Amino acid sequence: MLLTATTALAVVAGSAAAFAAPEEKKAERGGLHEQLDGITADSAVGALMEVRDEDGVWRGSSGVAELGTERAVPARGQFRVGSVTKTFVATVVLQLAGEGRLRLDDTVDSWLPGAVPDGDRITLRHLLNHTSGLYDFKKTLPMPPNPEFLDDRWRTWTATEQVERAVANPPTFEPPGSAYAYSNTGYLLLGQVIEKATGRSYGTEIERRIIQPLRLRGTYLPGTSPGIRGPHPHGYVPIQKDGGKPRLVDYTEMNPSLFGAGGEMISTAKDLNRFVAALLGGRLLPDRLLDAMKTPGVETKKYGLGLAWRDTSCGIRVYGNDGDALSYQSWSFTTEDQRRQVTVALTPDFRGDTDDAVDALLDEAFCG
Asked: Which candidate in 36, 211, 259, 302 could, as Cys together with 5 as Cys, close a disulfide (CB 3.0–4.6 Å)?
């Protein structure tokens, strides 16, 4: 039995039963229920969502937390946030720039001599906004549904070996700064730069500079620890063997060093909403650095220094990021005035593309 959003809300602590919305808002929340249910019916095992606005906090979930069970997705549950991690890493780099401990236009060679070809022309700014041209490490790996993908499930990766695999390939474009190409390699390097600048790992710096001050109690960087500490939905990847039909393999537990500084973080919808609101509200960066974070590397992309944005159908611009941790997908965006915050997380089942459905869901949440 597939649990609907309404059913899940009835059984998850802190769900809609705990949210007292004005009468005129109830229909809109019902619309969010329906769209969550539509996503799990078409392309996901489970989904969860949190909306914070002038009317309070609403949480919903749909689908099941684990295939083969009727267990509801925990609306307050943890999940792998994927590339939303990049926004945390970028915030730390910008804080270090504000402290004069590095400059955004420092070259990679000035911090990591010889780490990458043309490191004397690639700057930290290029790494942050994906204009370095460095080949993406992710593209060097077998990916689902290739069964070889599972061979590295428990492998511990170092950033150095990941970068070496990436730069064995030619750059995506030249010269650096002339175009945009998403590259996890740049954030692996930024993690190393943070360590060089502070003497502490990027995970430690995120913990002391962001997680602890904002009291993000459900957020942590797992390093090489394979599990997820708190209540969580299970995540799956499709694997195809011997030409047969792809089947979903539970990939909840894995060695997250695969993602490193580009995407290893685990969090909750509540914490991500709090983080993005604090960032846009100036609690983590001064205005000049927040403005730099909002400045695109190239005019054709809505991506700055680890921060993305989108324009909703009703003309509201929202800032945040989205993440793909293979078995988990997430979106976390907030209005510039921080009055409305929305985070969505899915455990996809790969029957279809979730992007259009989530775009419509975010439009409903921000514009409804």
From this structure: 36
- Residue 331 three-state SS: strand
**Residue of 83, 132, 330, 332 marked active site:** 83
Beta bridge partner(s), residue 276: none
Assess contact for 224 and 156: CB atoms under 8 A: yes
What is the DSSP secondary-structure string of 330-366?
EEEEEETTSS-EEEEEEEE-SSS--HHHHHHHHHHHH
Q: Are 185 and 135 in contact (CB under 8 A)?
A: yes
6: left (phi over 0), alpha (psi -120 to 50) or beta: alpha
Q: Which domain holds residue 63?
A: 1-76+351-368
Reported as a single tens digit per residue, the pLDDT across 107-151 is 999 999 999 999 999 999 999 999 999 999 999 999 999 999 999
- Which amino acid type is present at position 30? G
Whether residue 178 lies in the annotated active site:
no
56 and 120 share one domain: no
Determine the Cα–Cα distance for residues 44 and 288; give it in Å rounded to an integer: 40
Question: Which class for 359: exposed (0-12), middle (13-18), buried (19 or more C-beta within 10 A)?
Answer: middle
Q: What is the pTM of this model?
A: 0.93
133 and 256 together in one domain: yes
